[in-house]
Amino acid sequence: MSRLPLTFPCSSNILTATLDTAPALTGLLIVGGGSEIRSGAFSGQALIAARIAAAGFPVFRFDRRGIGDSDGEDRGFRASKPDIAAALSAMTPNVERVIGFGNCDGASALMLGGGIGCDGLVLSNPWVIGDDATQAAPPPAAIRARYAEKLRNPRELARLLTGGVDLRKLSLGIFSAMKPKPAPTSLVQDMAAGLAGFDGPVNILLAAKDRTAQMFEAAWDSSDSRIARCEHAGHSYVEPHAREWLYQQLLAALRA
Fold first, then answer.
1. Are residues 38 and 118 in the same domain?
2. Quick one: 171 and 66 in the same domain?
3. Are residues 189 and 173 in the same domain?
4. How far is 59 from 50, CA to CA, in rounded Å?
5. Same domain for 38 and 66?
């Protein structure tokens, strides 16, 4: 097993990638979120790629156009389908099956593109804030869960009884918590339509402490059995237990 730097074409641009080699014929394609380079936040994607490769599965990571070491203009995740398709083409000569893994708007891009040729999908904390979203505040369900947690904490109850809580802020929070579930944005509808056209296995991973995950859960079908949650985990799974949980989820998808 080794770590190899690669380049591949996308339209008139040259994109840069890293391949962690391994013998299996099923591989993992990592699609970064936002303007994140292929190593990931706190080198998280590079670290998990090394672990996955050590377990026997090759891992391909890349910078889309205009990000990191790649040429071109960054057009955002909605226009990243050609980048992902080009990365998939660069990876597939050495594998027979590809699991696409995206976090944040990387997951959204895979959903919008109906999997973009991948054989299976692991979608983490998908981004659902579209241009027609009315706000980026926590959804009512997340606010209610936060207040319920505080009410179970004796220290927070003592603060309330001794005047240590801003009552105006508390009343605004309670008002927000009572609001109905927001209507799906056009982005959510497009993501759902794209995913509906994908016939491979899908796993949706949510970090319970992450606001992006909370907003997705509020906008998505709550009965979706493909959702798995990691408690006390943040957006990039930097917590030791969350890092291990994500690793096991990815291994399970690759071995399925």
1. yes
2. no
3. no
4. 8
5. yes
How many of the other CB atoms lie within 10 Å of CB of 254?
A: 23
Is residue 103 within 8 A of residue 236, CB to CB? The reply is yes
CATH number at residue 127: 3.40.50.1820
Would you say 214 and 234 are in contact if contact means Cβ atoms under 8 Å apart?
A: no
3-state secondary structure of 1: coil
Reported in sequence order, the residue ranges of 63-132 that DSSP labels E, i.e. its strands, are 97-103, 120-124
From first to last of its 256 residues, the chain has per-residue pLDDT tens of 799 999 999 999 999 999 999 999 999 999 999 999 999 988 999 999 999 999 999 999 999 999 999 999 999 999 999 999 999 999 998 899 999 999 999 999 999 999 999 999 999 999 999 865 555 555 566 655 555 555 566 766 566 566 665 556 655 555 455 555 666 789 999 999 999 999 999 999 999 999 999 999 999 998 999 999 999 999 999 999 999 999 999 999 999 9
> What pTM value is reported for the model?
0.83
Alpha carbon dihedral 234, 20, 96, 12, in 10-degree steps, equals 90
Domain shared by 96 and 211, yes or no: yes
The parent domain of residue 114 ranges over: 3-131+183-255
Tokens of 192: 């759902």
